[in-house]
Input
Amino acid sequence: MIALLQNEFIEKKKWLEKDEFTDVIAVAESTPGPIAINCSTYIGYKIGGFLGSLIATLAVCIPSFTIIYVVSLFFDAFISLEYVALAFKGIRVCVTFLILSAGLKLFLSAKKSAFNLIIFGVTAATVVTLSLFAVNFSSIYLILIAAAVGVIAYLITSARSKVSAKSSDEIPVCQKVSDKASDKNAVCSIAHKASYEASEKSLDEASESEKREENE
Output
């Protein structure tokens, strides 16, 4: 289903960007209900507001409900057919490939930050371990844990950015103080030089006056 949604929403209709589609899938998987209905509700709301979301949700639900209801009337007789059973075995393989393909596309389109790679590795290792040992652990807990880790990482990053912003604001203040001090030192040196020149001039005048008096 994810592969079909990606092909329809991104490549054909151009309703979503790749990053936005990844966020929509994350929200749709985290909230109750089938992923197709949740995605359709979001797309409908984005394009047509509340009425658009209502129409999109009904448009996805009604055909599926009708088909499932009709199939359920003769499901036992339908599934007992040999060719139908063989067809379902082939469909299982195709569905597995579609899920892997969609997951690979989402992984390639996601940002390759260290945090994302760590979350992906830990989640994949956890899912494989739980599957191998047949541990009954709901995927909802994995989603909640990953969400909590993401919130904590965001808070830490935000706090670091605020600290770095404060430190960068303090640097110009220190620079201004040092500039003022250098200006003050420059003024003092100029004043000292002027006073030194004035004293030398007065000494020269005094020596010249003494020489005049001696000559007289």
Observations:
- The helical segments are 2-12, 18-30, 35-73, 75-79, 82-109, 114-132, 139-215.
